[in-house]
Amino acid sequence: MRKPLWIALSVLMLSALFLAACGGGSSKPTIVRKDPPAEYAGKTNPFTGDQAAIDEGKTLYTQNCETCHGTTGLGDGPAGASLDPHPGNLQQASKDASEAYLFWVVNEGGAAAGRSASMASYKGILTEDEIWKILAYVKTLK
């Protein structure tokens, strides 16, 4: 009577161990993004592909974003290392999120979009054109 119980428990424990080792799927967290408010919805970058604007965007990025987001936009800047959560990966965000969403987050700040309050609002600090130029530059990061 003891042997069948021992076998059943062993099979159950091995099955649990196997399932735990195999489970999980993707190790990348799912990022949930809110839709931007109506005033931002559908906005597109007027400087996409404009090299002079991209060059200006690089200068603005270096002055305003690089300390947290890093030289290549991976969120690995020196000031970003102490933030929790760490700054976002702009290379990935520029591929995954709409231009309207990215503009909204930079303009209104992370908290407005349900993201980290560490992402400051640049409304009143940068003009809309300057934000768009930064975003045009971010699209070139690799």
From TrEMBL:
Signal peptide boundaries: 1-20
Keywords associated with the record: Heme, Iron, Metal-binding, Signal
An example molecular function term from Gene Ontology annotations: electron transfer activity
Domain of life, per lineage: Bacteria
InterPro entries per the UniProt record, alphabetical: Cyt_c-like_dom, Cyt_c-like_dom_sf, Cytochrome_c-type_DH
Segments forming domain Cytochrome c: 52-142
PANTHER family in the cross-refs: BLL4482 PROTEIN, BLL4482 PROTEIN-RELATED
Designated name of the protein: C-type cytochrome
Organism this protein belongs to: Anaerolinea thermolimosa
